[in-house]
Amino acid sequence: MTREQPVLYGTSAGKAGTSGATYVRQASRWVPVTLDQVSPDGTRYAYGATVWRRGSTVASYDAVDHGEIRVVDIASGTERAVYKFFSFTDPGIIVHFAREGIYLTKTCPEGCLPDSGQLWLLNPDSGKMTKLPDVIVNAKQFLGGWRFSEGAAWVIGSSEDSSGQVVEQRLVRLDLSSGTQTTWATWDGKSQLFGSLEAIDTSGLPLVVENV
Fold first, then answer.
1. CA separation (Å) from 159 to 64, 111, 138, 172?
2. For 26-49, b where at least 16 C-beta lie within 10 A, e where not — what string?
3. Taking the CA of residue 140 as centre, how many other CA atoms within 13 Å lie in the half-sphere pointing to its CB?
4. Tell me: the pLDDT tens digits for 76-108?
């Protein structure tokens, strides 16, 4: 919540536990979300909200009625729910607000599903949801999460053998228009090395830290 008028509500909890606020130059004010949750034109932002069952007194999974992705107009402070989800198996984690819409993913609070860690695109006006092509992503080894450059999304994912051991990790670039996937780097699971995707630089290339 902000102190300026109009009062703006929001959270960065939809950013996988991160916290923070962002100064939006176009609106000349702070908003209570991360930069990835703000629209490129600086007029709106999105956040995830939990709606509790009526009469609930304890915050628990059983007390949750549903989740919502809300879009806030920064100038007026008005907000509306553009998408509702009723299960942790639905995508509800905001990863990026782009010109074409809001990118969402899903995590593994109660065990990973085959499409955990994948991407969906939410239209912030119509509420229409579109799933993007699957990328090799093991959400349990989701190192650094999704990062975005102009027209592309980047992720480091892993593949496992039947015993659950990581056999390979890949840095993958997903073209958001065509769905084409390009592997930029690989790590052999047996080498004890792995990469962590930290950021995208000003030229649109990934910054990766290689760890032992």
1. 33, 17, 6, 13
2. ebebebbbbbbbbbeebebbbbbb
3. 10
4. 999 999 999 877 677 888 999 999 999 998 877
CA atoms within 13 A on the CB side of 174: 21
Tens of pLDDT, residues 144-167: 588 999 999 998 877 777 776 777
Question: What is the chain's Cα-based Rg?
Answer: 18
pLDDT-derived band at 133 (thresholds 50, 70, 90) equals confident
pTM equals 0.84
| Segment 111-137 mean pLDDT | 86
Burial code of 162-182, b = ≥16 C-beta within 10 A, e = fewer? eeeebeebbbbbbebeeeebe
Look at residue 7 and tell me whether its pLDDT is greater than 70. Answer: yes
**Distance separating alpha carbons of residues 10 and 182, to the nearest angstrom:** 35
Cα dihedral across residues 28, 30, 35, 36: positive or negative:
negative
Q: How far is CA 123 from the centre of its chain?
A: 15
Burial 1-14 (b: 16+ CB within 10 A, else e): eeeeeeebbbbbbb
